[in-house]
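Worked problem 6 (solution included).
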Amino acid sequence: MATITLPEAEMQEGKKNTTKYVYFFGGGKADGNGKMKDDLGGKGAGLAEMTNAGLPVPPGFTIQTEACREYMRIGGVSKEVDRQMEEALAKLEALQGQKLGTGENPLLVSVRSGAKFSMPGMMDTILNLGLNDKSVESLAKRSNNPRFAADSYRRLIQMFGNVVLEIPKSAFDEVFDAKKKQRKAKLDTELRSIRKSSRSTPSATSRRIPTSNW
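Solution. The predicted structure is:
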């Protein structure tokens, strides 16, 4: 997901942004540590500490809180945030031996928000980022479970639509309930397959989920 680039940042030719926005963790070591809750939030600091302690933590990276403060101050973030995220993603792909949303075994990631203090139910999450109309077929083939793959894709569309596009969750529920009624299914699991959605959002909006994973 691309970020907004600030014109102001481009004008400051003489200044180089040296802020470390992205902290990687994985492969037994992390850029941050458990004492950095102000910068990495509780989750980010905890993941860094567990990684450094040698626990089997899935690799990833944390975008530190200064990026958010920067966005709130001036309505966007610098190119440096994008650059560091791209660098961290490349490192993650190399470590996993997978590519985000492509190939026979596509890399899927979750995007989780965090705060210094625990806020149950208040933080937004997007799961299965990396799924698209092509990679969902790869997931179905690799898992030998087309319904699992289609349901994972549905969850991505619902979460992205609600969190990023601010489409009410009820709009997605109405579509899903209508499909259940059409097929005379009482339970979600009774829907054996959910065909390609082409990242469409409910008809109440003209917006669509981007097909690019970045």
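Discussion: The beta strands are 22-26, 29-30, 60-63, 109-112, 125-129.
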